[in-house]
Specification:
The protein has twelve helices and 22 strands. By secondary structure, the chain is α/β, with parallel strands linked by helices. The protein is globular.
Length: 419
């Protein structure tokens, strides 16, 4: 077995002359022009060997990236979980792949032509996602990516499997608190609490699955747009080095491996570095240099987004109004007032008032708003036209937000991000 870390959540496994590629995002940028690779990749899709099996955990674009998939041979066998909703399946088909296998959770799958056996693990939160166990040549690899597993599930894996190498998440990627209008000292306090929680979770998960080695993965990225540079703050973002230091402190018997783009691990030779590890103390300097290098590319991407149509409010009202009319339980559950400040051409001030019995959407300003969303009109158009997924729009860090009272409005965010 040979494991190559491509970068972020993308991992290549070779066994018996066959290749399994997982969660390939290899073309910058993603998340509507916001996310770029850091550290930069050393492979392009064209550098990959023939891909026999391609596992995609879920449809977030840093795992499922159509521009990357466009450059991969269409005879690869695609492996995904058998989700109830089939949007993900249809989106993969739209990328030109026909050989798609929907795997049942917990059922072993044998990769033809190798001794490689795979098993998907379901999330312990109500999202379409999966983790994967790979067994081949006497070695077991666990790739959790973004899939949230509770302690009971992780402990069961540790009891049932002998995990040699585990790829575990170690840092956050959320619009909270950075995109909110909190005072800077409040942001820093909340950033730092989240930062520490994520690295402690990394160490805890490594202990629960009883892995011999743990790799911080599915976390590194950079925001390069000028107004987004502050969101790369070390107050919030962990580095792989941070995660390994906490692992060493809490579980010194587990080997922490920092794998960077191009690095390889084999059972016989261990970690083989392609390049020296980054100097993580210079991370912000490196990101500033990348932002300067790609400033024209960032501007070009934003300029290429389709403009908002003149009837954007009518589409906004028809889209959200139709959703609420089709399921009257939604306004009852959400039960807040949202103020949408849609900036740019054909924007305006619009309200979705979930506290009403009907006529939820209107133009104007609500005095009693609970959540305020400032969103570019082009992004709103992409959402209501069905050209983008709201969860991906939110994770672009291009929204600006405020809330009153200062509490997490779970029902709203769960509803919006599942549309």
């Amino acid at each position: 077995m040979k494991v190559t870390y491509i970068g972020h959540a993308c991992i290549l496994v070779e066994s018996g002359g066959k290749h399994l590629l997982m969660d390939p995002w290899m073309v910058d940028p993603t998340y509507h022009g916001a996310w770029w690779h850091y550290p930069p990749l050393v492979h392009t899709p064209k550098d990959l060997p023939k891909i026999d099996f391609l596992y995609i955990s879920h449809e977030h674009p840093d795992h499922f990236d159509p521009p990357t998939l466009a450059q991969i041979d269409k005879d690869a066998k695609i492996l995904i979980a058998d989700y109830r909703k089939k949007r993900f399946l249809e989106r993969i088909r739209a990328c030109g792949f026909d050989d798609i296998v929907e795997l049942a959770f917990g059922e072993p799958y044998h990769c033809e032509g190798t001794d490689m056996e795979l098993k998907l693990i379901p999330p312990d939160r109500p999202w379409d996602d999966s983790a994967i166990l790979i067994k081949t040549e006497g070695t077991t690899v666990l790739n959790v990516n973004d899939c949230h597993l509770d302690d009971t599930t992780l402990a069961r894996i540790g009891q049932e499997e002998e995990v040699d190498l585990a790829f575990l998440t170690f840092t956050g990627a959320s619009q909270y608190p950075g995109c909110f209008d909190f005072p800077e000292e409040v942001k820093i306090e909340r950033w730092q609490a989240s930062k520490r929680a994520h690295v402690e979770e990394f160490a805890n998960w490594a202990q629960l699955v009883r892995t011999k080695r743990a790799v911080p993965a599915a976390g590194n990225y950079a925001l390069l747009a000028e107004e987004q540079i502050p969101f790369n703050t070390p107050h919030y973002v962990n580095t792989p080095q941070d995660a390994i230091e906490v692992l060493r402190e809490k579980a010194p018997d587990i080997e922490g491996l920092q794998m960077n783009p191009g690095d390889v691990w084999t059972p016989a030779e261990g970690l083989q570095r392609r390049n020296p590890a980054p100097d993580w103390s210079k991370r912000m300097e490196d990101i500033a240099a990348l932002a300067k290098q790609h400033s024209a590319d960032v501007a070009k991407y934003f300029d290429s987004e389709p403009p908002a149509p003149p009837d954007l409010f009518d589409r906004f009202k028809a889209y959200f109004g139709g959703l609420l009319a089709s399921d009257k339980s939604v306004p009852e559950r959400v039960n807040i007032v949202t103020q949408w400040d849609v900036t740019g051409e054909h924007g305006g001030k619009w309200v979705i008032d979930f506290t009403r019995d009907d006529d939820w959407i209107y133009e104007g300003e609500a005095d009693n708003w609970n959540l305020r969303l400032q969103v570019p009109s082009r992004m709103v158009a992409a959402g209501v036209n069905g050209d983008a997924i709201w969860d991906n729009l939110v994770l672009s860090f291009r929204f600006r937000l405020a809330r009153n009272p200062d509490v997490y409005m779970r029902e709203f965010w769960t509803w919006l991000c599942k549309l």
